[in-house]
Amino acid sequence: MDELIILGVIAFVVIAAATVLGPRLGIASPLVLVAIGIAASFLPMFDSIEINPELILAGVLPLLLYSSAVSMPTMNFRREFGAISGLSVILVVASSLVLGVFFMLVIPDLGFAWGVALGAIVSPTDAVATSIIKQTPVSKRVVAMLDGESLLNDATALVLLRTAIVATAASFSFWGTVGTFAYSVVVAVVIGWLVGWLNLVVRKRVTNPAVNTVLSFTVPFFASVPAELLQASGLVAAVVAGLVTGILAPRRLSPQNRLSDSQNWRTVELVLEGAVFLTMGLQIQAIVADVQRDHAGVAPAMLVAAGALLLTILVRAAYVAPLLGVLGRRARRNERMQERLEGMQEKMTTPEGQQEFLERANTGRGRSVTTRDLDRFARRVTHALGDIEYFRRQPLGWREGVVVVWAGMRGAVTVAAAQTLPEDTPQRSVLVFIAFAVAVMSLLLQGGTIGPLVRRIAPKVDQAVLDAQALDERRRLMMTLRESAEGITQPERTEGEPRMEAFLAERRYRLDVISEQRSALLDARDNGTFDADVLADELANLDAAQIALEMRAKTAD
């Protein structure tokens, strides 16, 4: 027990040191932790350490994926959902099948089904590994696509893995696999949405921020465990619960509770992500020893792993290239509609224009179009214009495509999933080693070069244009805040009024203003009319102002 405590303390110190020193050395902290773990794995004191892969898949990943989903800009996720779903499903399936053929050909007596199983293990990018890309000056669209992909593609890979293992003992059924995947996702979405909603209903009534945060730590498991019991994807359920929480929390939870959540979850992410990378490195010695005991050596397996990594990159490039073409054509098509949509939006801001729309819509219709229908249509027009502006400001060219391809790193999920292969798997130790080697090579090669690559191919930008756009955005945002507070009457100070009553009246007024401004910003977030980061900063400012007011009130009391 004393040894475990000491090792835990050392691990915390190493994680903190790597987080601080890695960027100063120009190396991403995850890479530093993997290297430290590999070096430590050769020490005798770590010979007896065994890491249960289910601990990572069922214990760590739901927490990390939930936290990432909560903090992800939901509007950007919606805008990129087409690309995200393709990367998460189509690309994983294609990579698994191509790798399945490759492994069947280069590993004697393996068979196609076991080859697909290993392909499914190697195919998904890692949510933890993609944290490296966030430390580079990359497009927000690229970050949204990579984040969304890493949140969802594990479900596809794990369903394929289960199906391939079953197919080794029975015949493979394409439609059975499709049905299994659809069931897994649909059930997970329903459970995740329900848990995310109930989580906010309960936590809204808990005023203690510390207790509220403790309850938030249970949400990923309330979503993932029932989903797994129903043979659905626990990871997708945790992601959906996180997305629902991220969307609704600013309207349901107090600023104190959300601030406490944010601070404590950042600490949890730091510790768990660091622990995942450390454990990856610590397992190298045991995995190599298994291969050397059961087979001739690690050199042939290393060659197979290198070939598999090359194939994953080539298949990813072959998929991303046409994907960018499709996204570009869609953006250009939407831009051609911009002028017409702006005209419609301008008309709908006046009573005369609204009446004209209603009269035209009701001409020759069997069902009357109401003002409520018109409001819904106006919101759709606002959404469409926000999307057009978003895609116009951040086009996807070959540079962004290169980053999307090269940033598709493998990580702890690959290692953990490989270790869940049944004990009677043919050449199990070799398969586990190949998965581990692919993950480590991917992190070291792609993760170690992604920063210099992004800086080298980044296009030159006109800083004056960017500053003008930022100023215009800030001006529009300030106008939205002013307009939202216009309907609130400021209390007038009367002569002889007690100072405490005046203070309370002024406090109520300022809290009402903050509430209206927050509601206006959240409506703007849902409509996609402002940059997600700008909105997040302004919402944080409102939260800080409200917390300060409430603290002053407690002091005055």
Secondary structure layout plus pairing:
Layout: H1 2-24, H2 29-40, H3 53-71, H4 74-79, H5 81-106, H6 112-122, H7 140-167, H8 174-203, H9 209-229, H10 234-252, H11 255-282, H12 284-294, H13 299-336, H14 338-347, H15 351-362, H16 371-393, H17 398-406, H18 412-418, H19 428-457, H20 463-485, H21 499-527, H22 532-556
Helix pairs in contact: 1-2, 1-11, 2-11, 3-9, 3-10, 3-11, 3-18, 5-6, 5-7, 5-13, 6-7, 7-8, 7-10, 8-9, 8-10, 9-10, 9-11, 12-19, 13-17, 13-19, 14-16, 18-19, 20-21, 21-22
The gist of it:
The chain is an all-alpha fold. It has helices at residues 2-24, 29-40, 53-71, 74-79, 81-106, 112-122, 140-167, 174-203, 209-229, 234-252, 255-282, 284-294, 299-336, 338-347, 351-362, 371-393, 398-406, 412-418, 428-457, 463-485, 499-527, 532-556.
